Amino acid sequence: MTIEILKRELEARYSDSGSAINYYFSPGRVNLIGEHTDYNGGYVFPCALSFGTYLAIRKIEEPVIRMATTNFDFKAEIPIGTTYEKIGEEWVNYPLGVVSELTKRGDKISGMEMLFSGNIPNKSGLSSSASIELVTAVALNDLLGLGISRIDLVKIGRAAENHFVGVNCGIMDQFAVGMGKKDHAIYLNCDTLDYELVPIKLDGYKLVIANTNKPRGLADSKYNERVAECQTAVKMLSKGKPITLLAQLKMADFSKLEHLITDEVIKRRARHVISENDRTFEAVAILKTGNLIRFGQLMNDSHDSLRDDYEVTGIELDTLVAESRKIPGVIGSRMTGAGFGGCTVSLVKEEAIDHLIKVVGENYLAKTGLKADFYVAEIGDGAQKLT
Ligand code: GLA
What we know:
- The protein has a domain at 3-190: Ribosomal Protein S5, domain 2.
- Helix content is 41%, strand content 21%.
- The protein contains eleven helices and 13 strands.
- Alpha-D-galactopyranose binds next to α5.
């Protein structure tokens, strides 16, 4: 999407001639390892992608916010108010949630016309929601001169999702799309928000994303169910050690305390989170030594734990991962994001990529009846103003 096309589209959709049009972009993200650890105060290791959400926006005199997108037909005109209501399950709830959070803080919002255009595959688990939240937050902060720090914009994006959209997500996605840097992954401690940008040098290998294209029907409610299960685990474990978040335990502590969890399902959920947190810590350390093989094994272990203990994979993700691992030149393959559909990410020798796309694509179609899409990931920068 070029700025020229966005400009033309915006002018064609809105008759109002407001002030100058400004352009912003916010990426999607892929998480390399550290899944379902963020809301447990653990480590994550995501990177921003080169595709994402574009926004053309201008201030207008009328006290309304107009929102439209080139991706869906639904559009909205919302009077500026002191509170905002969620509109069904529509896409506008993400930017509107940001407006609502800013308003709650006491920031003064004025009339706007906004046109979004995204090239992140919808509901693919590559954070199209965080992307639209952050592009909105960054643009409004800039245009209205709100003076909010980037990290606070990240928190506002998450709050929009938690309080307005109703998904109890952690901070990983908004952090990755807000703070990402080209050719780097972000090693983030989701409890303290301390982070390090780690250069991703893959030496003859590439990250290949494969989209299951599975419709993600009940994903949000199942996600919230996992968050609640982790809270139950904390309650039970804290009888043995005073913890408030699962990631405050290492696997060595967990082995001594797991008898306190009386429910087998809850025990497996906790085991995933704590082992995944240990794995993420090791994975980042090992990547810095250049040992891609071990990094790939940890990616595999991560998926297996998400499949067996956390139970967020399903036949589509498991098939893509199993078929990818059969391809010579693949050293790691796992689901990425929340799961329940969405995408996998694999570490693949460059020469093997075409073969992988062909063979995995065919076998996946034969086994599931669905056509997968493949992307070679390019790691891009976080949300920004375009000139
Ligand atoms: C979704 C959420 C994130 C994170 C991942 C799982 O992407 O938005 O906060 O919990 O799932 O790691």
